[in-house]
Amino acid sequence: MAYDLEEQEQIATLKAWWDKYGNLTSWVLIAGLAAYSGFTGWSYYQRSQATQAAALYDEVQAAVNAKDNAKVLRAAGDMESKFGNTAYASMSALVAAKSSFEANDIKSAKAQLQWAAEHGGDEFKSVAKVRLAGLLLDEKAYDEALKVLAGEVAPQFAGTVADRKGDILVAQNKLVEARAAYQAALDATDKKNPGRQLIQLKFEAIGGSVPAAKDAA
């Protein structure tokens, strides 16, 4: 069917526009499609990583239940090397550290906690630092323990970190600094937190004084 005059004019206008901008438009479209393809590919990759990491974490847990620390460490090592950017890797490191501690393999426990402290998310890093500092405290490596606790920590762990610092400073007989650490721990710990009472007992045991609670008006 022949085009009428108006349609021919529209086609001529479109051809002229395409001659001027068509190549650019093609590249923009290609770039957009490539970006979308890359996004969907990355999303698939992320889902695949998470699925595989979850399966491997199940292996870690199964090895823990079987009290096979060697297998726990192998699975945790695989997790850290293959899926180190997932939360499962941090969880595996903490689980492996606990398993190693219970198996009296303190070296491996420290190595797993060090990994989590360096590579985990904020919450995992904070937990790992506190636990690692505790192991170093047991070894009387006080300066190293305090170094582990230095730097930023997740806000919700500020009280726990300060409490651990207090323990280390008491072991060093630095009571003034220990009182300051315990005071910071009390300030950062909710009054409804069951652990607060223990912090207060330690604080008072080295000469700290907690103001008596005021009665409500």
UniProtKB/TrEMBL annotation:
<dbReference type="GO" id="GO:0044877">
    <property type="term" value="F:protein-containing complex binding"/>
</dbReference>
<keyword id="KW-0812">Transmembrane</keyword>
<keyword id="KW-1003">Cell membrane</keyword>
<feature type="domain" description="Ancillary SecYEG translocon subunit/Cell division coordinator CpoB TPR">
    <location>
        <begin position="15"/>
        <end position="207"/>
    </location>
</feature>
<dbReference type="InterPro" id="IPR026039">
    <property type="entry name" value="YfgM"/>
</dbReference>
<protein>
    <submittedName>
        <fullName>Negative regulator of RcsB-dependent stress response</fullName>
    </submittedName>
</protein>
<dbReference type="InterPro" id="IPR018704">
    <property type="entry name" value="SecYEG/CpoB_TPR"/>
</dbReference>
<keyword id="KW-0472">Membrane</keyword>
<feature type="transmembrane region" description="Helical">
    <location>
        <begin position="24"/>
        <end position="45"/>
    </location>
</feature>
<dbReference type="GO" id="GO:0005886">
    <property type="term" value="C:plasma membrane"/>
</dbReference>
<keyword id="KW-1133">Transmembrane helix</keyword>
<dbReference type="Pfam" id="PF09976">
    <property type="entry name" value="TPR_21"/>
</dbReference>
<keyword id="KW-0143">Chaperone</keyword>
